[in-house]
Amino acid sequence: MIEIKDVLHLLGDELKDGTEQVNRFRKFIEKEKWPTEQIKKWLDECINESKGAHDPYNRAFQDLVVSLGKRLGFEIQYGRYVGKSGEENYDGIWKRKNGDTIVLEVKTSTWPIGSVSQLGDYLDQLAKKEENKNVFGLYVIGKGDIQPLIEQILGGKYKDRMRLILYDDLMEIINLKEELEPVIGEKQAIEKVQNLLLPVESINIGNIVRLIIEISTTKSTAAEEQVEEKVEKEVIEEEEEPWTKAELLSYLKDATPYQRLLLAALVQVDKEPATSKQVTFLMNEIAKRRPSEGIDKRITGRDIAGARAGLKMRRKPLKKEDIIESSWSHAERDYIYKIKDNYKQIVIDWVKSEKLWIKEEIG
Q: What is the rounded CA–CA span in Å between residue 196 and residue 210?
């Protein structure tokens, strides 16, 4: 496995502002091919190896944290490692499409951290420069006692514009986004996790309640779907009705990319029912051959469960039956899936019309 020390060694064991080594390092860590688990190990390595503010591991940690903004749907901007008079000396910036801006202060440790007024000054300067009142500050901390810093923020004039998060918790937010994405789609998943990082209007606590409910509902639906898949035979609820062709096509029209790939895979398997391994293989093949679907990461069985949960969330209010049969196979020691026979041709035609048919391409 690639370690940060190996990457730094190739770059001369140092990172300095404005150098080509820094540009190469940032392009390297931004690559979509790195799974979240890999990024987390790099961050852990930086925390364990960092010896001080000018240490290359400390600087690598700063850039890794800033780069995470891309995974959360922000436009990112890297800052400086060393402050310079007359320059904008923030560690990084995350910007939302609507203009909401987060100024990052990244620290491997809470010692030493001076006054939070330094970050506050950055917020004021940027808000004035861009004529944007929605500029907020976020401390991302590696380790140490965070309570004194929390008390500083609460006791200062920037308490409504500053937040703090440990890097472990930031990684959990990224994991949450990846869990929600196949269920509710990338756009909604990004919106929900970004809302966690931005200050919520504190007088109306209903805003916080709604955000918690929205996230817990989508997560519990996905978990419920995973439990249902362990049942050998699905129970058909009495109120669920069959689909007409027009109704089903309308339903398929709103499928998320993960749901589209799941349905496309299920009608292109060589043998029915197909195992989870066969389905994920085909989903990855379709994603690779159809980059317009926007899925760059490796698809796993968890993504099948998320896509199934999202399909269920949309069909339940319609009181329509599931178009996918699923159960646990003792013989295969895996989950197995198939599109119900009476809907298969409709789905095949839809898959072809959406340019997701690759069967002939892969032989």
A: 12
Closest CA to 74 of 238, 246, 196, 190: 190
* Residue bearing the bigger pLDDT, 296 or 252: 252
Place of tokens 């987060």: 102
DSSP string over 6-44: HHHHHTTS---TT-HHHHHHHHHHT-TTS-HHHHHHHHH
Contacts of 213 (CB under 8 A, 6+ apart): none
Q: How far apart are CA 185 and CA 188, in angstroms?
A: 6
pLDDT in tens, 44-55: 999 999 887 778
288 assigned to some structural domain: yes
| Parent domain of 86 | 4-170
Quote the CA–CA distance of 151 and 160 in Å, as a whole number: 13
Classified as helix, coil or strand, 77 is strand
Looking at 170, 187, 208, the residue that finishes a domain is 170
pTM of the full predicted structure? 0.68
297's tokens: 């990461």
